[in-house]
Design brief:
It is a single chain. The chain has 509 residues and is an alpha+beta fold. It is built from 13 helices and 24 strands. It folds into three domains: 170 residues, FAD/NAD(P)-binding domain (3-Layer(bba) Sandwich), CATH 3.50.50; 148 residues, D-Amino Acid Oxidase, subunit A, domain 2 (D-Amino Acid Oxidase, Chain A, domain 2), CATH 3.30.9; 115 residues. The chain is 32% helix and 23% strand. The strands form five sheets. Strands 1, 2, 3, 4, 11, 12, 13, 14, 21 and 22 form a ten-stranded mixed β-sheet that branches. Strands 15, 17, 18, 19 and 20 form a five-stranded antiparallel β-sheet that branches.
Length: 509
């Protein structure tokens, strides 16, 4: 499946070969941020994504936190891009219309003897350029967050910390890039990359792609592609993080993002509100070998339950509505790798993008786009569209505007998802927008239909009917998340096909 403006192609040995100026591997938040920044310039750009939609890897399963920037090692690329990305977020969220809120963060110190470590973290943040940092006493910390454990020794307060919706941020970047001419090719798995005479040849499971430049934003697979073109090998370890998501009734249990003092495996289990009013708890941090190992585990759930309450008391874990896990691409040196390898000019890495990767994405996009602008002598295009409007949620509108919307389009007056009050109009918009939804999860990421308490138990059949009708496909072709994740299978699938054949025969008669 392809979306975006068309380029040129030719036949070679019986197969279609497509040539681009720039090919980006990976449609997560990093790849989409790079695509959006590059779409400012006159160039033929393509994003190759092995899954059926954007935001199907690390970007869909993370803490949804915009980090202030005090944790990364001073002087590192990670530290610089974290702070730059944080500063870009207000304007970006306004331009592209996705939810973002600066709720502030607290790093909690549980023991008096650890207060010097907290102070050192604060000083590192100041050197990194983080604004407004200060150490809170026990009393001040409890005043800001009454549900902290009464025994906390102190906390580091970072007012620039925030929360965001990672789905809607990534989708917004992709939609804007698409409107500005970037082509997205989904269900397209890159099998190999090799350097040819003046360009790169990418073999995919849907044919050959050739490109003058390649951007490697492939997450946990970034090392695989880098090592195909460079002798200077890099290595990514999939680091699994498991989470609890709690019902909206628990969403006000804390108002800030609450961390424990960081350890060797990262920032530890956090407790935070989400921009949609839920409460999130996680992640764990376990290094694994399987780059597809996103299953949740009993051990992970037990770890979350045990560690969540260390800093925050009385977390209502009885209100957990779902659990999930994601993988972070942990680079051996714990640093972002951005740029061209010495022996592979034209191949640009955006690798090792683990936390704070979501925060850093806007800055990474700008950095890679500037690198390629200089290398390729790219020219700014006339008519670049900088702004994008998200899907309208009628219940967020004033009553008069809501009534007018429903009057103009009655689909906005029909509730499909009761838990999240999502209307048919929103679902239809999600399907027909640039880079539109093609699956139940695609609808979920764009509208939240299915993210509520019943976890799509009520709304899934109706959403499937809408997808079937709007995409003009059989019900048996509708999937949960692309690939083989079909909902209608077995005898029910056969019955649907039999009815279709019977109707066809009756029509011929």
């Amino acid at each position: 499946m392809e979306q975006g403006s068309c380029l040129f192609l030719w036949m070679g040995q019986g197969r279609i070969t497509i040539m681009y100026d720039i090919c980006i591997i990976g449609a997560g938040v990093t790849g989409c941020a790079i695509a959006r920044e590059l779409s400012r310039y006159e160039a033929d750009i393509c994003v190759l994504e092995r899954c059926e939609d954007v935001c199907c890897g690390t970007s869909k399963a993370n803490s949804a936190i915009i980090h202030a920037g005090f944790d990364a090692q001073e002087g590192s690329l990670m530290a610089r891009l974290n702070v730059e990305g944080n500063r870009k977020m207000d304007r970006l969220a306004k331009e592209l219309d996705f939810p973002f809120r600066r709720n502030g963060s607290l790093v909690v110190c549980l023991h008096e003897e650890e207060l010097p470590v907290l102070q050192a973290l604060c000083e590192r943040g100041v050197r990194n350029g983080v604004e407004g940092l200060r150490i809170l006493s026990q009393k001040e910390a409890l005043e800001k967050e009454p549900n902290l454990q009464n025994t906390v020794a102190g906390a580091l307060y970072a007012p620039t910390g925030g929360i965001v919706c990672p789905f809607l941020m990534t989708i917004a970047l992709a939609e804007n890039a698409c409107v500005n001419g970037v082509r997205f090719r989904f269900d397209t798995k890159v099998m190999s990359v090799e350097k040819a005479d003046g360009f790169y040849r990418l073999e995919t499971d849907r044919g050959m792609v050739e490109s003058r430049y390649v951007v490697n934003a492939a997450g946990v697979y970034a090392d695989v592609f880098h090592n195909m073109v460079s002798r200077h090998a890099i290595h990514m370890t999939p680091r699994k993080g498991e989470y609890f998501l709690l019902d909206r009734r628990a969403g006000t249990h804390v108002s800030h993002t609450v961390f424990l003092l960081p350890g060797s495996m990262g920032k530890g289990v956090l407790v935070s509100p989400t921009v949609h009013g839920n409460l999130i708890v996680g992640p764990t941090a376990v290094d694994i070998d399987n780059k597809e190992g996103t299953n949740t585990t009993r051990e992970g759930m037990d770890t979350l339950a045990a560690q969540a309450g260390l800093a925050v008391r009385d977390i209502p874990l009885g209100q957990v509505i779902t659990s999930f896990s994601g993988l972070r691409a942990h680079e051996d040196g714990h640093e972002f790798i951005i740029g061209e390898p010495e022996d592979a000019k034209g191949f640009v890495d955006a690798a090792g993008i683990e936390s704070p990767g979501l925060t850093s994405a806007p800055a990474i996009g700008s950095m890679v786009a500037e690198l390629l602008r200089e290398r390729m002598d790219l020219q700014e295009k006339n008519g670049f569209v900088a702004k994008r409007k998200g899907i309208v949620h009628p219940l967020d509108l004033p009553e008069e505007e809501q009534s007018a919307l429903i009057r103009d389009n009655p689909a906005y007056g029909t509730i499909v998802c009761r838990c999240e009050s999502v209307t048919e109009g929103e679902i239809l918009d999600a399907i027909h927008r640039p880079v539109g939804a093609r699956s139940l999860d695609g609808i979920k990421r764009r509208t939240r239909a299915g993210m509520g308490r019943c976890q799509s138990g009520f709304c899934a059949p109706r959403i499937m009917e809408l997808l079937q009708r709007e995409l003009s496909v059989g019900l048996e072709e509708i999937t949960k998340s692309g690939g083989s994740s079909r909902i209608v299978t077995g005898r029910l699938k056969e019955s649907t096909m039999e009815r279709s054949e019977k109707n066809s025969q009756e029509g011929e008669a």
